[in-house]
Structures are given as structure tokens and as C-alpha cells.
Design a protein that fits this description.
- The chain is α/β, with parallel strands linked by helices.
- The chain has one domain: P-loop containing nucleotide triphosphate hydrolases (Rossmann fold).
- Helix content is about 40%, strand content about 20%.
- The protein contains eleven helices and eight strands.
- Strands 3-4-2-5-1-6-7-8 form an eight-stranded mixed beta sheet, sandwiched between helices.
- It is globular.
Length: about 250
């Protein structure tokens, strides 16, 4: 059975697309058949995370200029339907019907939705079976996330969980417990604000591919495990030490 999951955030800049790219790659590493759809039509940048230059995008499909198979790309085991920021359109009404072609064919469909709670976000929620909310551990981001929860409730879509992104060791940031209690939602994962993520974005590859043994890649993998209903195992001390000293191939 295909799980169609909309990934949304209450505000921009929280690293939602970074999460989608790495969560999709992590699920693929766990032998799941994954399709990622870029439905952030006002800020489409999923292609930047996979290093592709698409000739045909979701925009063309929704405008009736192309078939969905023409906008289908596969990178490192992950299937992608990109969007184009150069061809902005708010017409999201066909998205649910377009994705029916892949229902039953994929284990997981991740829809990278826009930030905020506008018309496109509503369309993504309607096209999804469940929702993941991405937030930073700061009050403005948490407050805006409440709007997404209310929108999901409006369309009777369950929240699979919340992912806290860009976590830093700063007392000013809210704790995971603070966020769970404020949003009244379960925590799927906490992702550290890590230099390996920034390096991977510069190289246009997901960090779970670029630096698979790093701490932050493990956090993405643990989030994928929890999404699948499996509590990840604690790494042994030996493996934690190895991860601490691991360095990815030199690109810089």
C-alpha cells in the first residue's frame, strides 16, 4: 500500500526540502520504493539537492503540456518529479489525480509542499494521506506550524509527526519536549544544524549519500525508521567513535 505523505512547514527557511531529499534517500536505503514530488511551486528547489537539470517538470504536466512520465527522473534509486520556479503556477488542482498513476507502484510518495498555509499547501494536503511538519526549535516557527496542523484537521488528514530541523546546542532554542507539548504531536526526529548538510547542498547531493556515516545522516536515517514504525537501535560505542572521526571524500 502506498503512503502519500505531504511535507509542510509553517514558515520558510526551516530546511523542509533538505529534509524531503534526505528522508526520501534514507527510505530508499531501507529498501523502500520512493517517489519525491516537488509541489513547492513558488520556491521549487528540489532539483538543487539532486543535481538534475530537468527538461520537463510538474508545471508542464499540470498545464497539460506533458505526460507525467515525461517529468519522471531517477537519481541514486530515488524517483523525482521536479517543479520549475521559472514557470510559477498556483494551479495545484490536478495533483491528486496525477499521483494516482503511482499509487500502488511506490511504497512512499513524499510531496514537498510550500511553506505557509495558502492554496498550494491546501492542495498538497488534499493530495496526501498524511502530513509531516518541519519546524525549527524556535517559537515563530512553532507558532506557524500550528496553522498547518489546523489546515490538516480541516481536511481530516492525520499528522504523522514533527521533525525538528537545524537544532543547535543553544539554550535559546526550545527543547523537543517543549515542542511536542506545544503542538501536541509526536516527534519523528531531530536534525542537527551540521556543516555536512551544507557541504552536501553545495555538491547537490543528499547528505545521507555524501556522508552516510556522519551524525546528521544517522539522524535522517532514524527519522526514516520512525516513519516506518520502527524504533532505531542505539549505535554501539565503537560505531559512535567511528562516526565521530569519519570524514567524507574530499570535494572542497
Amino acid at each position: 500500500m502506498t503512503r502519500t505523505i505531504g511535507v509542510l512547514s509553517g514558515k520558510g527557511g526551516v530546511g523542509k526540502t533538505t529534509l524531503v531529499a534526505n528522508l526520501g534517500s534514507a527510505l530508499s536505503n531501507l529498501s523502500k520504493s520512493v517517489l519525491i514530488v516537488d509541489a513547492d511551486l513558488s520556491g521549487a528547489n528540489l532539483i538543487q539537492h539532486f543535481g538534475i537539470e530537468p527538461l520537463t517538470t510538474l508545471n508542464d504536466v499540470m498545464a497539460g503540456r506533458a505526460f507525467i512520465t515525461e517529468a519522471f527522473y531517477k537519481i541514486n534509486g530515488v524517483a523525482i518529479i521536479p517543479a520549475s520556479i521559472l514557470d510559477y503556477s498556483e494551479d495545484i488542482t490536478r495533483l491528486k489525480n496525477i499521483l494516482l498513476d503511482f499509487t500502488g507502484d511506490r511504497d512512499v510518495i513524499l510531496i514537498d509542499g510550500p511553506s505557509g498555509s495558502g492554496k498550494v499547501a491546501e492542495g498538497v494536503i488534499q493530495a496526501s494521506d498524511e502530513i509531516i511538519i518541519v519546524t525549527e526549535p524556535e517559537m515563530p516557527s512553532i507558532t506557524n506550524a500550528i496553522g498547518i496542523i489546523k489546515l490538516a484537521e480541516k481536511y481530516n488528514r492525520p499528522i504523522s509527526g514533527v521533525v525538528i530541523n537545524k537544532k543547535r546546542n543553544e539554550k535559546s532554542q526550545l527543547t523537543a519536549q517543549n515542542i511536542e507539548e506545544t503542538l501536541n504531536q509526536r516527534l519523528l526526529g531531530e536534525i542537527t544544524d551540521h556543516k555536512r548538510v551544507r557541504e552536501a547542498i553545495a555538491l547537490r547531493i543528499p547528505v545521507v549519500t555524501y556522508s552516510p556515516k556522519s551524525k546528521v545522516s544517522r539522524q535522517f536515517m532514524n527519522t526514516a525508521y520512525r516513519l516506518l514504525g520502527v524504533e532505531p537501535k542505539e549505535k554501539s560505542l565503537k560505531n559512535r567513535i567511528r562516526a565521530a572521526f569519519y570524514r567524507p571524500p574530499k570535494y572542497f
